[in-house]
Amino acid sequence: MIESHSAVQNRLNPQQVDHVAATPGGVSQRSWARCTGPRLLCALAMALGAHAAGGAERNADRNGDYIAAVVNQELVTAGEVDRRVEGALAEARRAQQPPPNAEQLRQQALDALIVERAIISTAREFGMKVDEVEVDRAVQSIAAQNQVSIEALRERLREEGLDYARFRNNLRDQIMMERLREREVYSRIKITEEDIDQVLDKLRQQAGNSAELNLAQILVTVPEGADPSVLAARQQRAEQALARVRGGEDFAAVARELSEDANASKGGEIGLRPASRLPDAFAEATRSLKSGEITDKLLRSGAGFHVLKVLERKEAALGRVTQTRARHILLRTSPQLSVEVASQRLAEYRAQIESKKRSFEDVAREHSEDGTAARGGDLGWFSPGAMVPEFEAAMNPLPEGGLSEPIVSRFGVHLIQVLERRDVNLEMKQMREQARNVLREQKFPQAYQDWTKELRARSYIEMREPPL
To answer: What pLDDT score does 206 carry?
Structure first.
């Protein structure tokens, strides 16, 4: 069976699939939300298994199928529901999940198809158009993801009983659906400055918990069940130690003299470790102290009385990321340049560059088909998330100076070289924008659900019973 990109991804990462067939195409809402840019490839399970609405009635008559629902002017056939159920069951088997309840799964499949038809009919009402070039690119992307040629893809479709023209019409519908979904759903998502502040506050707290501390302590122990006179004497000894070190005496010397823990001979030094591995009381008591500062009062614990000094503090930097400077050569695919041919050409360029017959810059200036060609393909410095996922997945493992194999993205086929890497702290404006993007993706599933519920409520829906 020919698989969409999302089917492959979900099989490799089953933890990202919340519930098969919970949303259109058996793709979870979380999977929809995690996609960046056009979500076409996340919807191809629908295009591969469904019949175009325009030909559904004729196909139903020919195969003994029947119309299960009418949505505005669009049709849903029982055969489509069956194929959606079969795909969901196959996905559950691949993910080694228990099979869903058959009746519930069939209803979910029917509901999902009704929503899809409502979206498609709304897109047509808005006059949305998708040209042939966009459909060609979608077909090429599917072929590349399945590692087959266009002709092999067409043959596989024939073997699975899928008409190629109908397949293209389904892709056209998916593109229209995605455009409408992006426009309508994202416009509903409201992110306030207070929302962003809360995200950043949480990040600051996490950064504080991951800070590393090297503490020294003076411990005056208190025997279990000590009477008040013993407790008072031990507290007085600890108070004297606190007064001496806060008065300027060397902490290590006082610790060696008075401390009663195992680190006394080392001046009370506990050693550098994450704050999360220290007792909560120690981390809290020293949270606001800088290196070299001493607590201003005794800390009481089950062991006794403590005087604490921060010898060293290594803060986890908030917003610190590893940026990459890279360059690439991009060949854009088209009906005249297939993915296979573009990949072969880039493999030849790669061999020339590695053998030092030609430089990367010269090849990029001559052949790359984007705005970086004049700069030798130099993309400049960028942070994680700035490039499409397939580009970063190929780039991230490369060492400095490393060359990738030809990699397919939604833009074409790339050859990538990493030039440099650096650790930087993002500016507050950049951090706030990243927080905004995170919140937007988190809110997408609920916003999508609300939108489809309203869309369905506005649509004319007629359910049909099986013929006698």
So the answer is: 64
What's the confidence (pLDDT) of residue 327?
97
* 73 contact partners, CB below 8 Å, separation of at least 6: 121
Q: Do the domain assignments include residue 79? A: yes
Q: Are residues 26 and 146 in the same domain?
A: yes
From residue 7, give the alpha-carbon distance in Å to each of 43, 256, 342, 379.
9, 64, 25, 31
Please state, as a whole number, how many other Cβ atoms lie within 10 Å of the Cβ of residue 286: 21
Domain carrying residue 75? 5-191+443-463
Residues 76-106, buried b or exposed e (16+ Cβ, 10 A)? Answer: bbbbbbebbbebbbebbebeeeeebeeeebb
Tokens 């992006």 sit at which residue? 182
Residue 22 CA to chain centroid, in angstroms?
Answer: 19
Both 27 and 138 in one domain: the answer is yes
Neighbours of 36 (CB within 10 A): 12
398 DSSP 8-state letter:
P
Flag whether 202 is in a domain.
no
Q: 342 is written with which tokens?
A: 């573009």
Over residues 278-297, mean pLDDT? 90
Number of folded domains that form the chain: 3
In-domain check, residue 206? no
The residue with tokens 């993706």 is: 441
- Whether the pLDDT of residue 209 is over 80: the answer is no
Beta-strand pair 212-221/74-77:
unpaired
Among 370, 366, 373, which Cα is nearest to 352's?
366
CB 27 within 8 A of CB 48: no
